[in-house]
Amino acid sequence: MLRSDAHLVPPPGPVRAVSGYRGPAANLCFKDVKATRHLRFAALDLIPVRPIPRTKLFANLCPLLGRTGPRFEGGLGIYCAARFHTDTAGYRRRGGDYRAASSPCGAARRSPAILLRRSSASVRGAAFRGAPRAAPFHQGLSRMSLRNIAIIAHVDHGKTTLVDQLFRQSGTFRDNQRVEERAMDSNDLEKERGITILAKCTSVEWGEGESATRINIVDTPGHADFGGEVERILSMVDGVILLVDAAEGPMPQTKFVTGKALALGLKPIVVVNKIDRSDARAAEVLDEVFELFLTLEANDEQLDFPILYASGRGGYASPDPEAREGTLEPLFQTIVNHVPAPGLDEDGPFTFLATLLDRDNFIGRILTGRIQSGTVKVNQPIHALDADGKVIEAGRASKLLAFRGLDRVPVEEARAGDIVAIAGLTNATVANTIADTSVTTPIAAQPIDPPTLSMRFAVNDSPMAGREGSKVTSRMIRDRLLREAETNVAIRVTESADKDSFEVAGRGELQLGVLIETMRREGFELGISRPRVLYQTDENGQRTEPYETVVIDVDDEHSGTVVEKMQIRKAELTDMRPSGGGKTRITFSGPSRGLIGYHGEFLSDTRGTGIMNRLFEKYGPYKGAIEGRKNGVLISNGAGEAVAYALGPLEERGILFVSPGEALYEGMIIGENAKPEDLEVNPMKSKQLTNFRSTGKDDAIRLTPPRRMTLEQAIAYIDEDEMVEVTPANIRLRKAILDPHERKKASRKKEAA
């Protein structure tokens, strides 16, 4: 075997340059091959014995030597940095081929190696042949030790930032590579909001030589509304990293996802993150985590969890809570030692549970999951089974994609335990079993908690419909919602009898708000109703409604106001304790119905300093009528453009939502009334023109800037008889019934009923 630092002697015969080069024959001396520690680049000195036109040599070598290209130095010498996407620290001979051997550090890339072709020459008696090609999957990857792990935590506790550091310290990124912060948050909405919305798979390598280990990592959302993403990916992993903020401690979402992981028997690793915070309280947080595990009825093996203290932003982890520097090597070592290998049957028939669904414009539907048994190869015949064992469709695995850092790389073969993406089927979806054609028994999928909230998505029927969006018909809306329900198992879509609206049920306002915002950016126009909870009936025939656990952190001076407002909304106080720094942590249990629309009022009551976290708790007894919005609204009584002259006097009536020059229509909400009842006004009234002038009548009108609502704020603000008009350009509030006479008739019927 040749070492990476070997000096190759000149070949005795002519070499036809490099594979792919069709220029003049030349004797080439491969003087030195140098490999860096992570084998990202190899340096070759190519010294042609006979002159070759530089431009032709450059053009023919570029495709082979990578995007870097050669740099000419001096007379006949040429120096080039050729990027090696290989598994290798050296070369291993297999039947005349020098192929990639295992990487000693596990950090090298796995795509085409640069191989050399000879005509009749030999180097140290060994022939070189071949062309750029991908090393087979089983020759490098599956031979490695494998670990599958998920990172779970509450929102903003540092999951994605920690994954960034795992990338950097495992050699996934070059030292000089420019990488965005929170690289796993690739969705535009994720970058804007600073939260993880979709679960994503990635992988890193750690270790050297025979001890090299591939670690497949699943980054999960931290917000409770996206809990469905967490529930379904837990079946792909064998362990979890529970990340807990050193100051905040276990939060509602921490309890939810940890309970799901412990119920599946997964072994946790507890990482107390942000240990460098000035208000960190690591010892107390660790006690709270242990109490949480006891509450969730963890077994003895799960209670014997390893503990690390880390700073994701600082890039270090240590068993010592006083450590403030270092690397993440203790975390890598803990994962390898504590998380078990998949231990699945590689010799059985191929079975695969689809967990995530994606689409590609070129290869079609892509299903991601973990191979439960057997081996799959490209173009192997497969079929899809539903939960009852019925064959949905049959086909071939046209593509196999493995995860390499942030990329999905084509491979030829994958084995049991590997997390891969499969293309080639057109109807299979999440929770289906993809298997060899001989398999008839499906894999049991994990049940998903049902949705608790619904909204009505309707065709936009306002006077401005079709002016700003390109997708306005019910058929387009229906197709888009059904596609979303197919990929997002926590969402359910029901079509109404009139075919013009759809009932969309989900986990919470944020989840449905993200769906609406995504559709708005795609060019859809929609009419959205106020969220409503989904009721159930218990065994005694009594109506039940969803309850939520609400954890609120507020300054001590605002705690009384918060408790009073929550009691008005039928919530019960279950815990209240000081959390340090002049703050109090208050825990409530209350109906979800009472919490809709409260968040904006909560921020006003706490001067923007309060933090509220909500989590579905249970279905409990119906609590009766709950007081809604106290203020009425200002409604436009005609169509036209808003005029500053008319808006000036209306400011005395309440808070305006529009500015001068905006297009209005009859029934559109233009502001909030200071009194409880709704008020129809004329915001288009202009000043009467006369021939008389007098001092003081033509003073400039100074208007307060209008209140602009985000999509979530608008959805939470509206009442039962109102809607949000969503277009790519604007978000408007309106009455569901635009005509004032019809609106009064409907109101009288409701009162009579």
Automatic annotation (TrEMBL):
Protein name according to UniProt: Large ribosomal subunit assembly factor BipA
Subcellular locations according to the entry: Cytoplasm
PROSITE patterns tied to this protein: G_TR_1 (PS00301), G_TR_2 (PS51722)
Catalytic activity field: GTP + H2O = GDP + phosphate + H(+)
Gene that encodes the chain: bipA
Group of enzyme by EC: hydrolase
Annotated function: A 50S ribosomal subunit assembly protein with GTPase activity, required for 50S subunit assembly at low temperatures, may also play a role in translation. Binds GTP and analogs. Binds the 70S ribosome between the 30S and 50S subunits, in a similar position as ribosome-bound EF-G; it contacts a number of ribosomal proteins, both rRNAs and the A-site tRNA.
Organism of derivation: Sphingopyxis flava
Alphabetical list of InterPro entries matching this protein: BipA, BipA_C, BipA_GTP-bd_dom, BipA_II, BipA_III, BipA_V, EFG_III/V, EFG_V-like
